[in-house]
């Protein structure tokens, strides 16, 4: 098993990132069998697809590294690095640009959502973003990619690119069979927490790009802030239903119940068995307490870790060197398959 995944170092790590992806990263790292490996990275090259402030990007990269370690990513057991220190990602992206089709990228919902009506004004990087994402995982022969639901389409594209590249360019073994250059990666998407929604609008995903701080719980929020955000979360006036079917048409209620379920590891039906018939006046404080209990220790570790920039730099440098080693054979094979020589 080769587990690979990434996160953009823009803004704080929020509850959607944690429950949708990072918690799974940690679980996969902790359950790893000998011979398998986990690689996690900060997608700082992807951050260039949007207007950004260079000093802020540098600070956010270190902070996100601290946040991942605080969540349980252990740099001694996982390869933890940032893309910019591993130029192989950018190199492989260029090779894959020859395989990816304009039509495939035009269909990406993230591109359509982020570009909106102003496609002409977007950076080329925003459009080709999913090709870099494909390079991120194909470079390491990733077998499993733990992500939230919103990244599923990008992973399908990575599979399409790998498949087409293998079809078009894979060299032959001696017996005439194909020797594929790339492995087709499998997305690993959590059930309950695949899509954590905004606290202000149960139909929009919780996101770092939402201008309202009240829409998301950040891992750096203190206990009072967490409780306040949950108490002010948008809901409806009805009490909670006793059955899951009663959540239909109530996206905000469904989201809060889903968060509770994801935090406790219970099914939403079990949460409703406890809280059905009760109002949000009873449910919200219970949810707030649960969040504080889960996130408090992570926050405390984060606050300590982020003060030691030198230690974080050393972690990333060590991870980058391992990542370069892991990625080199595949990159060389891709060059060779294309009729290029890489020294
Ligand atoms: P990013 O930085 O937006 O998010 C990091 C991870 O968090 C998940 N996530 C969510 N899950 C559930 N509910 C939400 N509201 C929510 N918001 C975010 C995302 O699905 C993701 O798993 N393009 C990627 C970063 C990336 C990457 C990769 C991921 C770059 N290269 C290669 C996997 C493999 C992104 O912007 O994620």
Q: Which class do the helix and strand fractions yield?
A: mainly alpha
Summarize the amount of helix as a percent range: 40-55%
**Whole-number tally of structural domains:** 2
Biggest β-sheet: strands ordered side by side in the sheet:
1-2-3
N-to-C order of helices and strands? EHEHEHHHHEHEHHHHH
Tally of contiguous helical segments: 12
Task: Note the beta-strand portion.
Answer: 5-15%
CATH topology of the largest domain: Rossmann fold
Looking at CATH, the homologous superfamily of the largest domain is: HUPs
Low-confidence segments = none
Q: In the CATH hierarchy, what is the class of the largest domain?
A: Alpha Beta
**Shape estimate:** globular
Give the bound compounds. Answer: tryptophanyl-5'AMP
The CATH level-2 architecture of the largest domain is identified as 3-Layer(aba) Sandwich
The total count of strands amounts to 5
Average of pLDDT: 96
Radius of gyration, CA atoms, in whole angstroms? 21 Å
Largest sheet: 3 strands, parallel
Question: Can you describe this structure?
Answer:
- This protein has helices spanning 15-30, 54-71, 88-97, 102-106, 109-115, 124-138, 152-169, 223-231, 251-264, 268-275, 280-305, 309-337, and strands spanning 2-7, 37-42, 79-82, 144-146, 186-188.
- It has 343 residues and is mainly α.
- The chain has two domains: 2-194 and 308-337, 3-Layer(aba) Sandwich (Rossmann fold); 213-305, Tyrosyl-Transfer RNA Synthetase (Orthogonal Bundle), CATH 1.10.240.10.
- It has a three-stranded parallel beta sheet with strand order 1-2-3. A two-stranded parallel sheet has the order 4-5.
- Strand 2, helix 2 and strand 3 (79-82) form a beta-alpha-beta unit.
- The radius of gyration is 21 Å and the shape is globular.
- The mean pLDDT is 96.
- Bound molecules: tryptophanyl-5'AMP (TYM).
- Residues 5-8, 16-17, 20-21, 43, 46, 133, 136-137, 145, 147-148, 150-151, 194-196, 205-207 line the site of tryptophanyl-5'AMP.
């Amino acid at each position: 098993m080769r587990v690979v995944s990434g996160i953009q170092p823009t803004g704080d790590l929020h509850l959607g990132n944690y429950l949708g992806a990072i918690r799974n990263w940690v679980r996969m790292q902790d359950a790893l069998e000998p011979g398998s490996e986990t690689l996690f990275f900060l997608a700082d090259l992807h951050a260039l697809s949007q207007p950004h402030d260079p000093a802020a990007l540098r600070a956010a990269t270190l902070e996100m590294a601290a946040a991942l370690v605080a969540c349980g990513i252990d740099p001694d057991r996982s390869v933890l690095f940032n893309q910019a220190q591993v130029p192989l990602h950018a190199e492989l992206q260029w090779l894959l640009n020859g395989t990816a089709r304009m039509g495939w990228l035009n269909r990406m919902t993230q591109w359509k959502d982020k570009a909106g009506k102003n496609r002409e004004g977007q950076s080329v990087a925003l459009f080709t973003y999913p090709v870099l994402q494909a390079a991120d995982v194909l470079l390491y022969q990733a077998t499993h990619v733990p992500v939230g639901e919103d990244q599923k389409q990008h992973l399908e594209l990575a599979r399409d690119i790998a498949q087409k590249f293998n079809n078009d360019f894979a060299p032959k073994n001696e017996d005439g069979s194909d020797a594929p250059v790339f492995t087709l990666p499998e997305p690993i998407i959590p059930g309950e927490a695949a899509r954590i929604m905004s606290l202000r609008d149960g139909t929009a995903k919780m996101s770092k790009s939402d201008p309202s701080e009240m829409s998301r719980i950040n891992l750096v929020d203190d206990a009072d802030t967490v409780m306040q955000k949950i108490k002010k979360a948008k809901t409806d006036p009805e009490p909670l239903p006793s059955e899951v079917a009663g959540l239909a048409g109530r996206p905000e209620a469904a989201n809060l119940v889903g968060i509770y379920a994801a935090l406790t590891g219970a099914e939403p039906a079990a949460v409703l068995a406890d809280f059905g018939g009760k109002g949000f006046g009873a449910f919200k404080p219970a949810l707030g307490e649960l969040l504080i209990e889960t996130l408090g220790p992570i926050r405390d570790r984060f606050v300590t870790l982020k003060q030691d920039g030198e230690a974080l730099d050393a972690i990333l440098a060590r991870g980058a060197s391992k990542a370069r080693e892991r990625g080199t054979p595949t990159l060389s094979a891709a060059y060779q398959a294309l009729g290029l020589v890489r020294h």
